[in-house]
Amino acid sequence: MEAVLQIENLTKNFGRLCAVNKMNLEVGKGQVFGMLGPNGSGKTTTLGMLMSVVNPSSGGFKWFGQESTNDTRKKIGAVLEHPIFYPYLTGQKNLELTAMIKGATADQITSVLKLVELSDRKDDKYKTYSLGMKQRLAIASALLNDPQVLILDEPTNGLDPMGISEIRELIKKIASDGRTIILASHLLDEVQKVCTHFAVLKKGNMVYSGPVEDVNKGPEIVEVNADVDLSEVLNTFQGASAINRENGYFEVTLTKGIKGHDLNKFLFEKGITATHLVTKKRSLEKQFLEILAESK
User: Fold this and answer.
1) Cα(291)–Cα(191) distance, rounded to whole angstroms?
2) CB burial of residue 16 (10 Å; 0-12, 13-18, 19+)
């Protein structure tokens, strides 16, 4: 896959504090890449360096195989921190001002307003917008010059559930045309629902990077119960690598190649009918906590 971004030993120190420590990362074209980590992990500092707002202490990065220049930055749209617009101007007028700076056309303004579903509110003053609408206008502004890459820092921060859902759907829509998106978030659910790949940052160190689809790989875990005590019979099941009691159910970790229906068949042959048998999906939250625990 063609690399849009290559980061090599990127480091940023603020006095004694190392905010980002020798980061190495590659983001491919068309990926929705999530930078995941708790507050203070270095996500925003990393994005600041990538947008040349913050100067690296050492190391570097390349956009589209080239050193960062004004020309390469024109291919990148970004929403960092809180978007700044004129409160007494309409959404349309605010975008017209941005368009003058970016050299965008009136048609592009119309197009981005339609994309973020603000066409019907374009003539309302910015100060009347909800937080979700303000965030969508900021994304519209970042898309005005039709960038190849969109960078978003905590895009759903402070939004209510409906606003979060709207931004998630908008990110999916923007990504559907092959545009590369890099977003920073501390929300696990957000990353699992919209990203194709993710990296985990902890205290400035990148401790993991990989595809989101790998989260569901690994041994299958089945939640099971019956009207009889399963303690002894489950211990005789050869396809189990671990058995735990969790929330009133038996949680059975299966060995490689063994599936939930194999366990169900085993119980049935023992004359036991399962009253509850559910294959549990491995969540990003569980993997995230495992990664952070392993990186101590």
Assistant:
1) 15
2) exposed
| Identity of the amino acid at 142 | A
Q: Whole-model pTM?
A: 0.80
Tokens of 10: 């990127």
Length of the chain: 296
Give the CATH architecture of domain 3-215: 3-Layer(aba) Sandwich (3.40)
Distance in angstroms (rounded) separating the CA atoms of residues 293 and 296: 6
- Fold for the domain defined by 218-282: Alpha-Beta Plaits (3.30.70)
Q: Where do runs of H (alpha helix) occur along the chain?
A: 43-50, 70-73, 91-102, 106-115, 131-142, 161-175, 188-194, 231-235, 260-269, 284-294
Domain ranges of the chain: 3-215, 218-282
Task: Kindly report, residue by residue over 244-271, the tens digit of the pLDDT.
Answer: 888 888 988 888 888 889 999 999 999 9
**pLDDT tens-place string over residues 121-159:** 999 999 999 999 999 999 999 999 899 999 999 999 888
